[in-house]
Amino acid sequence: MSTPGIRPLVAGNWKMNGSRDMARKLVADLVARAAGSELPVDLLVCPPFPYLSVVADALSGSSLSLGGQDCHTAAAGAHTGDVAAAMLRDLGAGAVILGHSERRADHGESSGLVAAKAKAAVAAGLTALVCVGETEAQRNAGDAEKIVENQIVESIPSGIGFADIVVAYEPVWAIGTGRTPTVADVAAMHRHIRALLTARDPLGAVVRILYGGSVKPGNAAELMAVPEVNGALVGGASLKAEDFWGIAEGAAKSAS
Ligand code: PEP
Fold first, then answer.
1. Pairwise CA distance, residues 17 & 137, whole Å
2. Active site residue 170
3. What is the pLDDT of residues 14-29, one digit of tens each?
């Protein structure tokens, strides 16, 4: 078991992919698989905003939960194109991904902004799934742990309840590339993150720390068995029910 007492979470980040029809079929397939088994793993599906409602309906009555991919810092107001945390909650979401490296890169999101979003998310009743991770240049320069440490310190607001936080360690260079860090590197980073969290709050000992970056059915069991890895944030492989389920099965192996 990767951390005794922590139930793994496998979260699917669909990013800007799919269609209404695909969303219905993919979720129906996952719901059928979940109904036929009792994996000791929590499953979260994070579709693009336009499909939240469709996915919420398809997930209804199942053990899977719904999440958003981002939210605004404000509760409501003049913010064209943005979505409030309370709107996600209203549609049945229980969580929201924040600070994904694609948002940090494409939208210039700073850790300070991510912290403000996390605060808004938790205030609206959502779990904030906060992403951190170094670039390849930062790792090659030997700065990976320091970069991730700064992101953790600055992206998780002070005073927030750690019961409402999930951290995803996602090396930027491993996202969508088919490359993954060594098991030893994943273990070292997760150990570092656990130490940072517990130094801040005793509840840091039970915050789920996910690994993300090219997780597939073929490498999931090995990655999920690493100490302090409590599940996965999955991009590309979350778009196929068979692959997402295969990853959940890999996570289940380290949970039992
Ligand atoms: C991600 O974007 O969060 C991710 C982990 O992507 P992938 O699984 O495709 O590497």
1. 28
2. yes
3. 999 999 999 999 999 9
Do 166 and 127 contact (CB within 8 A), yes or no? Answer: yes
Contact 154, 194 (CB under 8 A): no
Ligand 1 centroid, distance to 38 Cα (angstroms): 25
Which residue in the block uniquely carries the two structure tokens 């996952």? 30
**What are the beta bridge partners of residue 46?**
13
Angle separating helix axes 183-200 and 144-155, nearest 10 degrees: 40
Alpha carbon distance 157, 111 (integer Å):
10
Q: What's the CA-to-centroid distance between 9 and ligand 1, angstroms?
A: 15
Write down the pLDDT at residue 255.
79
Identify the residue whose C-alpha is closest to ligand 1 atom 7: 235
100 carries an active-site annotation: yes
Residue in the structure block whose two tokens are 């499909």: 51
- For the chain, list residues with pLDDT below 70: 1, 256
Residue with token string 């260079």: 173
C-alpha gyration radius of the chain? 17
Q: Which domains does the chain have, with CATH numbers?
A: 15-28+49-66 (no CATH), 109-200 (3.20.20.70)
Residues 6+ apart with CB under 8 A from 45: 11, 12, 14, 27, 30, 55, 59, 64, 65, 66, 67, 238
Q: Ligand 1 centre from 77 Cα, in Å?
A: 31
Which of 234, 240, 243 to probe ligand 1 with, by most ligand atoms within 8 A of CB? 234
